[in-house]
Amino acid sequence: MNVLVIGGAGYIGSHVVKEMIKAGHSVTVFDNMSSGCEENLFADAGFIKGDILDPVTLSQTFAAADYDAVVHLAAFKAAGESMLKPEKYSVNNITGTLNILNAMCDADVKKIVFSSSAAVFGEPEKLPIDEDHPKNPENYYGFTKLEIEQFLGWYEKLKGMKFAALRYFNAAGYDIDGDIKGLEQSPANLLPVIMETAVGMREQLQIFGDDYDTPDGTGVRDYVHVTDLAVGHVMALNYISKNNESLIVNLGSENGLSVMELLEEARKISGQEIPAEVVGRRAGDPAKLVASSKMAKEKLGWEAKYSDCETLIKTSWDVYKKKAEELLG
Ligand code: UDP
């Protein structure tokens, strides 16, 4: 298929591009490079520098080539920031997505794979979290994702669009073959923060609370390897094409890891001290989030293969270590 990957120069997007090419698709990346990096662009994918807030560039893009499908990963994703700057999230995440959907309708492109998030669920009422779990987003970011899932439902009903909304749990790790090396800029997520501390880009890790009701008191999350996530996009696109049916599905490892477990494994693998101090809890952080990925297994045949703690850390450390060596000469 001829696939336009919007946000394809970013962290998850670049991994998706790689797996799409591997599966035999012809790929063009559309990215405004606000958080994507050139290093993440593949020679065998096309590239268009463009912004989803610019409907003219979007319609020119769709007019210039015959795309069969879109993968849309262009969004702001910092939950904390979304509570302080909801306007930014409304415009980019919601208006931007509507621009894409409308340009797709004009160009008669009927398939889209969308990056949704476990943030649509909010505070868990039961674990593991399956797709039917109540949706009460705790932050504005999660609300934008839930809202877009609903737009997708309407565009399916009214315009015959087929979509896969993939609810990512905690994306982590780096390309299993070491082909993707672009670092995220100013990351706020746990694993890149641990890595930046390990290479000396930060002085210390702040552990947000050690008094949760979890085995070691620190927060437990479902970390899913980014290569596993990327493969999930290929499978989801196949699914909606073959079955002509939309899909909303969780992608998680079903395995809970605590902040402390990740930190200890990172210390072991990197051989670095990685200084850390316990600070207060971060607002809006639940104690534990773990996915049920039963539906992904049943419908897509998808299972997390690389999401064990060691592989998550090792693939990340390989990238950060090399980058630190390059920077230090
Ligand atoms: N966390 C932490 N220090 C950090 C960043 C995150 O202790 O600098 C904890 C956070 O409280 C949560 C887990 O790590 O328990 C994962 O947080 P992250 O921001 O990566 O993802 P989230 O689950 O919030 O989407």
Automatic annotation (TrEMBL):
Presence of keyword DNA repair: no
InterPro entries tied to this protein: Epimerase_deHydtase (IPR001509), NAD(P)-bd_dom_sf (IPR036291), UDP_G4E (IPR005886)
Keywords: Carbohydrate metabolism, Isomerase, NAD
Biological processes annotated in GO: galactose catabolic process via UDP-galactose, Leloir pathway
UniProt xrefs under Pfam families: Epimerase (PF01370)
Annotated ranges, domain NAD-dependent epimerase/dehydratase: 3-252
Reactions this protein catalyses: UDP-alpha-D-glucose = UDP-alpha-D-galactose
Cofactor: NAD(+)
Molecular function per GO: UDP-glucose 4-epimerase activity
Pathway the protein contributes to: Carbohydrate metabolism; galactose metabolism
CDD domains to which the protein is assigned, alphabetical: UDP_G4E_1_SDR_e
EC number per UniProt: 5.1.3.2
Oligomeric and partner information: Homodimer.
UniProt similarity note: Belongs to the NAD(P)-dependent epimerase/dehydratase family.
PANTHER family documented for this protein: UDP-ARABINOSE 4-EPIMERASE 1 (PTHR43725:SF53), UDP-GLUCOSE 4-EPIMERASE (PTHR43725)
Protein's name according to its UniProt entry: UDP-glucose 4-epimerase
Lineage: Bacteria, Pseudomonadati, Spirochaetota, Spirochaetia, Spirochaetales
Primary gene name: galE
